[in-house]
Amino acid sequence: MAVLWQARTLFFLSFVFNALAAITRYIPAGQETLFHIQPTTTDSSSPSSYTGSTSDNSQTLIPPVPPTDPPVNTLFAVQLVNGNIPGLSIPQQGAFLGFSIELSVSNHILGHNGTTLSVPFLNLLANLQERGGRVTVRIGGNSQETAVLVPSIPDGSALEKDKSTVYNPTHTPPLIFTPEILYMMANISSLVNVDWFLGIPFIDAPNWRLDVVQKGQEILGNRLLGFQAGNEPDLYLPHGHRPQGYGPASYTGEVQSLVDTMRSQGLKTQGQIIAPNVNRDWTPEDVFNTGFLDDFVQELGIISVEKYPNDNCAAVFNTGGTVHNPQDVLPMYLTHDTGVNLAQEYLNTAMIAQQLGKPFMMFETNTASCGGFPGVSDAFAAALWGLDYGMTLAYSNFTGALFHFGGQSVYYNPFTPPPTNQSAFHQWTVGPMYYANLAMAEVLGKSNQSQVIDLNANGGNPSTPGYAIYENGNPMKVALFNYLDDNSGAHDLSVAISPGGNTPASVRVKYLLADHVTARGNFTWAGQTLGAEFQSDGRLQGELNVVTVPCDATTNTCTVTVPAPGFALVFLNDQAYTDSTPSGPTTTFATTAFTKSVNTATIDPQVLETSNGHSGKDRTGFSSTSKGSSPNGATTLMDGLGGVLLGCLGAGLGAVLFALF
Ligand SMILES: *[C@@H]1O[C@H](CO)[C@@H](O)[C@H](O)[C@H]1NC(C)=O
Ligand SMILES: *[C@@H]1O[C@H](CO)[C@@H](O)[C@H](O)[C@H]1NC(C)=O
Ligand SMILES: *[C@@H]1O[C@H](CO)[C@@H](O)[C@H](O)[C@H]1NC(C)=O
Ligand SMILES: *[C@@H]1O[C@H](CO)[C@@H](O)[C@H](O)[C@H]1NC(C)=O
Ligand SMILES: *[C@@H]1O[C@H](CO)[C@@H](O)[C@H](O)[C@H]1NC(C)=O
Ligand SMILES: *[C@@H]1O[C@H](CO)[C@@H](O)[C@H](O)[C@H]1NC(C)=O
């Protein structure tokens, strides 16, 4: 048995690492240890080659022509009423949409060490905090399963493949990381309001490696919201990770062993476990039916699942499965039905979680597993779809959902740093999924009271979904989508909203726009953008554009236009608007360290001399010359935050942050 088990483990490892080795061949030198695609969720057995890279793939697809027989109705009404109407979701937080970052790429996103953080990442998080109050980020994924926390790595890096422990003939070693990753997380949380999730490696169960729990709890304190007990345990058996017979009861037994061991080591267990993290082969109820919820009523902090609506594994890993043509899958990201069908599977689980008073999260998701589809996951369709999907999950009583990051050469990343050898002249690329997070933070705002309802708008036409957001029985916002693509204006929607109660003189509208559903850049939210490929320092650029729409006092309606394609968020009153909108100039971190040529910010040398990670309260010495940055873009956060920031500016000055990786 032991021998068999070991053989299976080796088989699994060789499967994983063959996959990684196959992929990393196409990734720029120096990147191998850090950026790679994980064969994440759907079946990805026998991967052998990787075929794509976002940076050298500029595939733009053809937008579908709007249907003509029958045409989509473009004039419709939305009637809202005051009061606690049936069907509202539970109250949701502005941090509903967060991020899921593979542990293996986390240092490229977070920074180099606790004093050298990625400034664009801080800015991207700050944008969300200002709108939704808070951000949640998971560091984990498949790479958490084999990760080993070590005290230090000889070359001083925070994360690496373990070159001393080669597991298989491909000589691809597992991941090691140091507490510096945890310090980076903690230090980020001292600058922006971020809470974190981690994962406990399950590969060697029941030989638990709990250093990540001990150090995580110690370093992150209450910024750490819990640990995943395994990642997609329902796929352990098909992936050769567990022996025949492994089922939901076996998993429950492993979690019991984990909890017992945590307790015996004096580690906090109350509310710390995130489970069952199932993906495809088991439902959450399959696990619950083994007595899971009774057994771990104290320890279970969050009920969680992981799901993507589709996968691109056959193309990326040559699985022998059906290769999906991006042009053919595009329509599935231009309909409300995709998100609705996915959420439907979990309505029962959501109700169970609600009855137990536990959060229920979609812990890892995106457009399609195995990196997404070129021309789809990196196009405007994904921004509209991701936002619509997020709102459907909120309406379906999930309490949060995390958009996943793979690595350098995937299509679905909400944002991506430049390849290491390009960091001297390139900045970050912000993708459509980030815009979905940004708009969602405003949809829900900071009140913690937002209740979402799917309006079944326009007779339930899946090309034109709409939602209302209520707070304490009052309609506050209306969210309207137009998935149709027609620049002539003939398919722009004209939506007559009756706001319920007293009709205001006017309402304010923010739009999420791009030229086409297939556009791979030039996305704007309320007129502002995060720039083109390799051009973002994480700050919004351009003038804020909020449209005021007058209301008609005789018909009690406010008629809002939604371009084809586009999304409109309608603020029905001042409170709704101020609760979601950043007050005053954007408070972000000035970029300095990244690029020598594109973005050269100036720093008063005297400020640097006195900063050194300790003082730095005097921020007046900064002035940004960031290309295309907004006039107020260079302001920084509150007093006291300058310390780590300045330490990071100082460390990066002259050198280039990511060139050091
Ligand atoms: C970066 O490295 C890759 C892979 O070695 C190489 O193909 C590419 O030309 C390099 N780019 C620059 C700008 O040096
Ligand atoms: C953190 O990283 C910076 C940039 O690589 C480096 O200069 C600094 O020495 C590092 N700090 C520590 C404590 O390792
Ligand atoms: C940031 O992390 C480092 C570890 O690299 C730690 O020494 C330092 O105290 C941290 N700074 C803050 C402000 O937490
Ligand atoms: C969400 O929960 C609320 C409150 O329990 C309930 O009324 C509503 O029907 C649920 N929504 C769905 C889609 O199940
Ligand atoms: C919303 O909830 C968060 C965390 O649960 C809390 O920190 C914040 O203060 C709450 N906001 C309001 C306005 O109550
Ligand atoms: C963005 O807009 C500019 C100006 O209209 C255009 O030159 C550029 O090609 C667009 N980029 C993308 C990725 O659509």
UniProtKB/TrEMBL annotation:
It comes from the Eukaryota. The chain crosses the membrane at residues 640-660. Residues 40-58 have a biased composition (Low complexity). The keyword Nucleotide-binding does not apply. GO terms for molecular function: hydrolase activity. Residues 621-632 have a biased composition (Polar residues). Keywords: Hydrolase, Membrane, Signal, Transmembrane, Transmembrane helix. Residues 466-569 form the Beta-glucuronidase C-terminal domain. InterPro entries: GH (IPR017853), GH79_Enzymes (IPR052974), GlcAase_C (IPR031728), Glyco_hydro_b (IPR013780). Residues 38-66, 606-632 are annotated as: Disordered. Residues 1-21 form the signal peptide. This is Glycoside hydrolase family 79 protein. The lineage of its organism: Eukaryota, Fungi, Dikarya, Basidiomycota, Agaricomycotina.
